UniProtKB/TrEMBL annotation:
Protein name: dITP/XTP pyrophosphatase
Assembly behavior: Homodimer.
Cofactor binding note of this UniProt entry: Binds 1 Mg(2+) ion per subunit.
The protein's role, per its UniProt record: Pyrophosphatase that catalyzes the hydrolysis of nucleoside triphosphates to their monophosphate derivatives, with a high preference for the non-canonical purine nucleotides XTP (xanthosine triphosphate), dITP (deoxyinosine triphosphate) and ITP. Seems to function as a house-cleaning enzyme that removes non-canonical purine nucleotides from the nucleotide pool, thus preventing their incorporation into DNA/RNA and avoiding chromosomal lesions.
Superkingdom field: Archaea
EC number: 3.6.1.66
Binding of Mg(2+), residues: E37, D66
The keyword Coiled coil belongs to this UniProt entry's keyword annotation: no
Species this protein is from: Methanomethylovorans hollandica (strain DSM 15978 / NBRC 107637 / DMS1)
GO CC entries: cytoplasm
Keyword Hydrolase in record: yes
One term of GO molecular function: dITP diphosphatase activity
């Protein structure tokens, strides 16, 4: 069985990616060592720099995932600040910010960065459009899943298997698998 090292401290991301890789017969190994996260408006340079940095440090091919929730009524907030905002204020306060907003549309984005030592990093972007719910719903998933609605149910309600068929992460990983198989 082939292997891939995923540098992330986020257990929810890792568990999701692991089951997506399992279906491709690739064993996913978590490295929690981290990497410096650039301050950028876009996720692509953050993932690209992180993958390059980790590949040179560990001296093995690695992947990273920089992701986030972009809420249209909030000008794309929290976007690249998603992890900071999740830890600092949480879903309830994000819903408070959205209290008077009619436009509930939002985009979940995942950028997978892959790099082999002494090579350039390559990135694959996946997106899914949905709505910010009026209240938290569901017990599955992680992070913003309880407030991100897709076809009437939140990502925390639809369950891991359903989420893994259509999520931003799945869409980015499908592009990665296509590239790997070339
Ligand atoms: O499918 C998802 N369902 C719910 N929430 C999600 C999802 N995907 C990303 N998110 C949230 C988690 C974190 O608050 C932020 C990403 O921040 P991001 O820096 O990429 O991840 P992180 O700091 O948690 O882990 P790490 O950098 O070690 O991979 O967006
Ligand atoms: Mg992070």
């Amino acid at each position: 069985m082939r292997k891939m090292v995923f540098v992330t401290g986020n257990k929810g991301k890792f568990n999701e990616a692991r089951s997506i890789f399992e279906a491709k017969d690739i064993e996913l190994i978590q490295d929690t060592g981290g990497y410096p996260e650039l301050q950028e408006d876009e996720l692509e340079p953050i993932a690209s720099f992180g993958a390059k940095w980790a590949a040179e440090k560990l001296k093995i091919p690695v992947m990273v995932d920089d992701s986030g929730l972009f809420i249209n009524a909030l000008n794309g907030f929290p976007g690249p600040y998603s992890a900071f905002v999740e830890n600092k204020i949480g879903n309830k306060k994000v819903l408070r910010l959205m209290e008077d907003e009619d436009d509930r549309t939002a985009v979940f984005k995942s950028v997978i960065g892959y790099c082999e030592p002494a090579k350039e990093a390559i990135v694959f972007t996946g997106m899914v459009e949905g709505l910010i719910s009026l209240e938290e719903k569901g017990t599955g998933g992680f992070g913003y899943d309880p407030i991100f609605e897709y076809n009437g149910r939140t990502f925390a309600e639809i369950g891991d298997d359903e989420k893994n068929k259509l999520s931003h992460r799945r869409r980015a990983l499908d592009k990665f698998f296509e590239w790997l198989s070339k």
